[in-house]
Design goal:
Elements: E1 5-7, E2 10-16, E3 19-22, E4 25-26, H1 27-34, E5 38-42, H2 43-56, E6 62-67, H3 74-82, E7 86-89, H4 92-100, E8 108-110, H5 117-126, E9 130-133, H6 136-148, E10 153-160, E11 182-183, H7 187-196, E12 200-206, H8 217-235, E13 242-244, H9 261-274, E14 281-284, H10 288-291, E15 295-305, E16 312-315, H11 324-328, E17 334-336, E18 345-350, E19 359-366, E20 373-376, E21 397-402, E22 405-410, H12 415-418
Parallel strand pairs: 5-21, 6-7, 6-14, 7-8, 8-9, 9-10, 10-11, 10-12, 12-13, 13-14, 16-18
Antiparallel strand pairs: 1-2, 2-3, 3-4, 5-15, 15-16, 15-20, 17-20, 18-19, 21-22
Helix pairs in contact: 2-9, 5-6, 8-9
The structure holds ligand LLP.
Ligand LLP binds at residues 67, 70, 88, 111, 171, 208, 211-212, 246-249, 285-289, 324, 328, 382.
């Protein structure tokens, strides 16, 4: 890499001279000060990803609800709350985090197929904006819980448009055969049912077809299917106040070329306008596209282990820190924080966890030595939020960089932290 070379699609992560930086902070210095594995996020990168959506919605009534499952660290929620975002949550735990981070409960939408009565109660008591209901059975329970509190629960039905998002099967959610949403053909009767229940107030419709979508066609198709339903439901006498198009926009992991959020929304708004819905209240639930390319995970090379069939580069981050390769065969670029010269070798980059599935990258050409620090890129989404303590490994520390400032936003977990809630009999 030459001087001041930004990584593709990641303008806030760049080599200055021979040092990889996040904004103005040299990553080698952060690794020295805080140890590894270490997640480092760029605030500017998050805000610039958000700005693309905000530009896309300029002049419209739109609420961006950050899907916080992508990265639910409090300081990151705070960044989005301060920037005006609401939140898409999927548990009472996530709701507690929103409140702890200063988020506005009225801008919270609650998704998920398995909300418990306790979670419904908690959400009704703090006055969340909307429940995205995923089954008829859930409608009945929610109505009952709301009546018990003397309230009406605002609901939107998550409809399943049966559109193929052309992504990994584990992260595709809008097809028949997925557990999510209410089938398109059952939606009208579900709306009639919702409108008849005394504890509910129908406010919207929503869909979410999958994640890491890199093409606009599935969105355009899903929008058509959802708008057909809005027309049907409204002509049956149930008004739909807001339309929520979910999240799912992909990022560049390995040369992927998803549409930019503003360009995607220009296309979608053209369709909405053409069909006469452009002035409705719009909602979206982006997760990965707001944070994914704003973060890296720093990891130190522990050992190089050459072999007959494979060379292994054993690092101190593992599948408990970066679960996506093991779970989805996901690709994350791996680059040196301080590049070396020379030829290098092809390595499998693996962690210390006792599983063959514990790999971070396969067949990577690297020039490395023990003690070097590598940066695993595109690690802002679905890494720390999916991290575990497997092998009694404490979770990594997290840093939020804001220009020349590096804030420690989560301390490294000690071994003691990992068993602090346990007791001997
Ligand atoms: N809304 C709902 C209802 C969702 O289920 C999701 C993600 C989102 C919004 C946000 O989607 P995004 O904009 O982040 O694509 N762990 C997987 C991704 C799982 C996504 C689950 N739902 C991964 O690492 O690829």
């Amino acid at each position: 890499m030459t001087a001041n070379t930004a990584l593709p699609g990641q303008p806030h992560i760049a080599y200055a001279g021979d040092q990889l930086h996040v904004e103005a902070m040299a990553l080698s210095q952060l690794a020295r000060e805080h140890g590894t594995p270490l997640f480092v996020y760029s605030k500017a990168a998050m805000l610039s990803a958000l700005a693309a959506y905000q530009r896309g919605f300029a002049g419209r009534q739109a609420q961006i609800c950050y899907a916080m499952k992508a990265n639910s660290s409090l300081a990151i929620l705070q960044v989005f709350a301060e920037a005006g975002c609401g939140f898409d949550i999927v548990s009472g735990g996530e709701l507690a985090r929103v409140l702890a981070a200063g988020g506005d409960p009225a801008k919270v939408i609650f998704s998920g197929v398995g909300k418990t009565r306790a979670e419904m109660k908690q959400a009704l008591q703090v006055g969340i904006g909307c429940f995205n209901v995923e089954s008829e059975a859930e409608l009945d329970v929610l109505s009952e819980v709301a009546m018990g509190l003397g309230k009406k629960a605002p609901v939107s039905l998550r409809v399943n448009p049966n559109v193929d998002p052309k992504t990994h099967p584990y992260i595709s959610t809008g097809l028949k055969g997925n557990k999510f949403g209410i089938a398109h053909e059952d939606a009208l009767s579900a709306y009639r049912h919702a409108a008849s229940l005394p504890g509910l107030k129908v406010v919207g419709i929503d869909c979410h077809i999958g994640s890491q979508i890199t093409d606009s066609t599935p969105y355009l198709d899903a929008m058509d299917r959802v708008l057909d339903l809005v027309a049907e439901v409204e002509s049956a006498g149930v008004p739909i106040h807001h339309i929520d198009f979910g999240g799912g926009l992909g990022i560049n992991y390995n040369g992927d070329t998803p549409p930019q959020a503003d360009a995607l929304w220009a296309q979608l708004l053209t369709k909405l306008d053409a069909r006469g819905y452009g002035q409705r209240q719009l909602m979206i639930e982006p997760g990965r596209s707001l944070v994914g390319n704003a973060g890296v995970c720093l990891t130190e090379v522990l050992y190089l282990k050459p072999g007959e069939q494979k060379n292994f580069c054993i690092v101190d981050a593992a599948m408990n820190d970066l679960p996506r390769p093991a779970m989805y065969q996901a690709f994350h670029q791996i680059v040196p924080v301080t590049p070396r010269t020379g030829d290098g070798l092809v390595y499998d980059v693996v962690g210390p966890v006792c599983e063959s599935g514990d790999w971070i990258g396969r067949d990577r050409q690297l020039r490395v030595a023990a003690g070097d620090v590598l940066a695993v890129l595109s690690a802002g989404a679905y890494c720390m939020s999916m991290a575990s303590n497997y092998n009694t490994r404490g979770r990594a520390a997290e840093i939020l960089v804001d220009g020349t400032k590096a804030h420690l936003i989560r301390q490294r977990e000690s071994a003691f932290d990992t068993f602090a809630l346990e007791q001997l009999v």
